[in-house]
Design goal:
GO terms for molecular function: DNA binding; DNA-binding transcription factor activity; phosphorelay response regulator activity. Keywords: Activator, Cytoplasm, DNA-binding, Phosphoprotein, Transcription, Transcription regulation, Two-component regulatory system. By secondary structure, the chain is α/β, with parallel strands linked by helices. It has two domains: 141 residues, Response regulator (Rossmann fold, 3-Layer(aba) Sandwich); 66 residues, Winged helix-like DNA-binding domain superfamily/Winged helix DNA-binding domain (Arc Repressor Mutant, subunit A, Orthogonal Bundle), CATH 1.10.10.10. The protein has nine helices and ten strands. Helix 8 packs across helix 9. The longest helix has 19 residues. The termini are far apart.
């Protein structure tokens, strides 16, 4: 059983998330708390495998709590559930080890997707003493940035996820007068560079972006992309 804490100051949202969690197998609500102090007190005395964490709390910040968790070396994973959709906040959350990021308001299906992905990785890796790269990649790729291998949008081809597509396109859409590399778009979107490159190539096939290749004196040639729509 995966023990979950919900840290959310809004009692209505806290109740909704608790109900959502109650619909999923293999998850148990260990505690639902409105403040970082209460969360810290509970962590020192009880087991928590996963925390569903809001960012904006009264006079507190969920990212600061995430940093505290890492400093104190708690073996606890975190999924951010927040209305904050700024790229800087998303990047910081992933830098400090968040395994997923849900932007309010979200659907039960997206909530379930995040928890199911987490469960698959949690049990899949835990049961093995060692794991080969090809097996590990299934968990890393599937659980990074909204499960890009979920073909949940019938209008997109297999391997392209609509959530990740929207995140990347939001940045590409701004590139009307200039070309940017996948790395530059990765920094803006918070999505891994290899994933951004894959989606840019898909957008190229769609005819939504243009690509140029710049050759420098040193290093590999740079692939740069611009919005064509």
């Amino acid at each position: 059983m995966i023990h979950v804490m919900i840290l959310e100051d809004d009692p209505m949202v806290r109740e909704i998330n608790s109900r959502f969690l109650g619909k999923l197998s293999d998850f148990k609500l260990a505690k639902a708390v409105p403040s970082i102090k209460e969360a810290q007190e509970f962590l020192f005395k009880s087991r928590v495998d996963l925390i569903l964490l809001d960012i904006y709390l009264p006079k507190e910040n969920g990212i600061d709590f995430l940093k505290w968790l890492r400093k104190e070396e708690f073996e606890t994973d975190v999924i951010l559930i927040t209305a904050d959709k700024t790229s800087n906040m998303i990047q910081e959350a992933f830098r400090y080890g968040a395994v997923d990021y849900l932007i309010k308001p979200f659907t039960f299906n997206r909530f379930k997707e995040a928890l199911d992905n987490y469960k698959e990785r949690y049990y899949g890796i835990k049961k093995l003493d060692t794991i080969e790269q090809n097996e590990l990649d299934k968990y890393i790729i599937k659980n990074t940035l909204n499960n890009e291998y979920d073909n949940s949008d019938n209008d997109l081809e297999k391997g392209i996820n609509k959530y990740t597509y929207k995140i990347i396109w939001k940045e590409v859409e701004k590139l009307v007068d200039e070309y940017k590399t996948a790395e530059e778009i990765s920094e803006k979107s918070g999505v891994a560079r290899v994933t951004v490159r894959k989606y840019l190539e898909f957008m190229l096939k769609e005819g939504k972006v243009d690509k140029i290749i710049e050759y420098g004196k040193v290093g590999r040639p740079q692939h740069k992309y611009k919005n064509l729509t």
